[in-house]
C-alpha cells in the first residue's frame, strides 16, 4: 500500500492523534460493517455471530503468528466457537487471511497493534450489546469481545505509553502499518457471511 499523504499539520500532532486521523475513514466503515452493526444493534442471530467469529479467527490466528504474539485473541475466539457448537476438531479447517500487513520492524508492529488494541475497547461495548444471542446471559461465546474485561483500559493505556515512545523518524512506518492493518482486516471481514467452513 502506498504511503499515506498526511496534511502538513498532522506531522506536529501527537502520534495517537495522527493515527486516529489517518485511520478515521476505515474505522468509520468498520462501524458500518453489517456484522459489527448487527451486534451493536443487538440484532445478530446465533449463526450469524458464529460466522463472524469464524472470520475473526481466520484473521487473528495468522496475525498473532506473524506478529510473534502468543495466541491470546485467537485462543479466545477458539473457545467462543466451541461454546457456540463448533467442534474443536474443525478449528484447524478454518480458512486464514492470506493478506496480512508486513510486520518487519518494531514500528510496523506498533502500528498494527494500534488496530488490535483499539478494537479491544470497542469489543467490550459490543459484548454488552450482544445480549442472549451468544447463548444466554452467560459469558459463553463472548470471551473475545469481552477481551481483558476491566483490564482492557489499562492495557490500552500501557500501549499508549509505547506510542509516546516512538521516535519521530518511525512515525510514518507506524501510521502506514496501522492503515494497512485496518484495510487488510476490513477486506478479510467482507466474506464473513460465507464463513461456513467450521
Task: Write up what this structure looks like.
- With 198 residues, the protein is mainly α.
- The protein contains nine helices and no strands.
- The longest helix has 25 residues.
- The radius of gyration is 17 Å and the shape is globular.
Shape: globular
The rounded distance between the terminal residues' Cα atoms is: 31 Å
Q: How many extended strands?
A: 0
Please give the share of residues in helix: 55-70%
Strand proportion = under 5%
- Helix and strand composition category: mainly alpha
Number of alpha- plus pi-helical segments: 9
The main pleated sheet reads as: none
What integer value in Å does the Rg equal? 17 Å
Order of helices and strands: HHHHHHHHH
Q: What is the averaged pLDDT score?
A: 88
Low-pLDDT windows of residues: 5-9
Amino acid at each position: 500500500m502506498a504511503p499515506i499523504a498526511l496534511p502538513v499539520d498532522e506531522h506536529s500532532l501527537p502520534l495517537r492523534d495522527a493515527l486516529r486521523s489517518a485511520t478515521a475513514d476505515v474505522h468509520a466503515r468498520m462501524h458500518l460493517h453489517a456484522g459489527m452493526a448487527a451486534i451493536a444493534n443487538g440484532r445478530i442471530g446465533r449463526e450469524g455471530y458464529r460466522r463472524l467469529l469464524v472470520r475473526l479467527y481466520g484473521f487473528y490466528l495468522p496475525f498473532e503468528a506473524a506478529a510473534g504474539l502468543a495466541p491470546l485473541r485467537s485462543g479466545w475466539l477458539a473457545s467462543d466457537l466451541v461454546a457456540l457448537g463448533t467442534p474443536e476438531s474443525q478449528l484447524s479447517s478454518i480458512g486464514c487471511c492470506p493478506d496480512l500487513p508486513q510486520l518487519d520492524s518494531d514500528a510496523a508492529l506498533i502500528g498494527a497493534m494500534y488496530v488490535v488494541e483499539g478494537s479491544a475497547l470497542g469489543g467490550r461495548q459490543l459484548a454488552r450489546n450482544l445480549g442472549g444471542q451468544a447463548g444466554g446471559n452467560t459469558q459463553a461465546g463472548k470471551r473475545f469481545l469481552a477481551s481483558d474485561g476491566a483490564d482492557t483500559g489499562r492495557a490500552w493505556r500501557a500501549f499508549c505509553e509505547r506510542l509516546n515512545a516512538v521516535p519521530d523518524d518511525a512515525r510514518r512506518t507506524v501510521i502506514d502499518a496501522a492503515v494497512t492493518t485496518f484495510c487488510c482486516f476490513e477486506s478479510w471481514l467482507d466474506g464473513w457471511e460465507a464463513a461456513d467452513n467450521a
